Amino acid sequence: MDGLRKALADVVGQRFVTDDPDVLRSRSVDHTGRYSGRAQALVRPADTAEVAAALNICRQFGAPVTVQGGRTGLVAGTVPEHDDVLLSTERLTTIGEVDAAAGRITVDAGVTLAQVHSAAAHAGLKFGVDIASRDTATIGGMAATNAGGLHTVRYGNMAEQVTGLEVVLPDGTTVRREVAVRVDNSGYNLPALWVGSEGTLGVITRVDLALHPVPKHRVTTLTGFDSLGAVVDAGRILRTVGGVDALELLDGRGLELAANRLGAGVPTGRRWYLLAEVSGAHDPSEDVSAIMDRINPPDAPAVALDTAGSARLWSARECFAEVVGLFGPPLKFDAALPLDTLAAFADSAVGVVAEYAPEAIPILFGHVAEGNIHLNVLNCPDADAVYLRILELVRHYGGNISSEHGVGSLKRNYLDMALTPEDISAMWAIKRAFDPDDFLNRAVMFPDSLRR
Fold this sequence. Notes:
Layout: H1 2-12, E1 17-18, H2 21-27, E2 39-43, H3 48-60, E3 65-68, E4 84-88, E5 104-108, H4 113-122, E6 125-126, H5 139-144, H6 152-155, H7 158-161, E7 162-168, E8 174-178, H8 190-194, E9 203-210, E10 212-213, E11 217-225, H9 228-238, E12 244-251, H10 252-261, E13 272-280, H11 285-295, E14 302-304, H12 307-318, H13 320-323, E15 331-336, H14 339-356, E16 361-367, E17 372-378, H15 387-396, H16 421-434
Parallel strand pairs: 2-4, 3-4
Antiparallel strand pairs: 1-2, 5-9, 6-10, 7-8, 7-9, 11-13, 11-14, 12-13, 12-16, 15-17, 16-17
Protein name: FAD-binding oxidoreductase
Cofactor: FAD
Pfam family, one: FAD-oxidase_C
């Protein structure tokens, strides 16, 4: 350990290498607080060259590496399990100038999502991905997990925003794939391989991001419904309006908790709510009004036409980040269901929770346009009684057990619920080609059976 620490310190400086047990313990717990591991050191490189040198040293010493960004993931993807060296990208913080004409910005992997939003806004543009952990989530981690978020219905996931990448491979080689033209059919689309690879194929150090024009007009609505099926139907109708930015499902139980326990000024009284946002170069309010007449909800929707009013309605969605932690770390599920089976899945999932964890409180929210649902089971100390049963329900209803948070280490041994054996074997072959020693993010994505 002394030799490893000294070699790393020679590269990054003594201040940026530590084996302090308290520091390592705090860095070895996931964002939910449910899952923990062990690490032997933390190294914080300042640039791509130091990342490459640190990887080379760890490989020479036979020390596996777990890469960490903002550590906001929800599938234990940054939890070390093999006495790893933790490699943090937090010091990679350079923000390039916005190229307004091209609609592009280049940032280091440790730059936060909020910082990208700010840089884009100062140039009169916007970045298309937004998530609740925007103040701490890093762009490198979001690219590595192909994060989605609140506006995927319009802009797509991170894969649609990334136009180029710089990556340090497990052998220390640095690859820079920058697309300077709009059409490039020269060989493999390597950025598409690294985006979503969850750090198993290399350390992302720099990302080129697409930026978008800011729409001049916006209409935000919040509407209550008595059934999830009615929300799904309303979402389908709203999608016929051009310029839909967001279609967010809100569980009425969660809003009641927010009102009663957090004192939040949110609507209550209906079982489900739909937060919708439509924007464009021209005022869409008449189109939205006509669509709402077609939907004919039980109550008139709350409508906002300005920024302040929109923020008030969005607060109903934002409060779920705090609601799900009211009873300690929740049991989290991130799944995508076909819209035709979404309501049936939700009913069955609530039934499973009631049967096997009667004191628990199931709360659902998510991006209903994609069928991407976040099920959080609050006050559920016995996760084992519920976890596998819910994953089996996802499969039964034709869904995917990992929608936008990734596989991480939490779902690695359930990967066969989403992929065929042939799919997994092909992915494992790619992993072995890039990382034959399996020393980078060893606990992530692939089932234990492949590593025996």
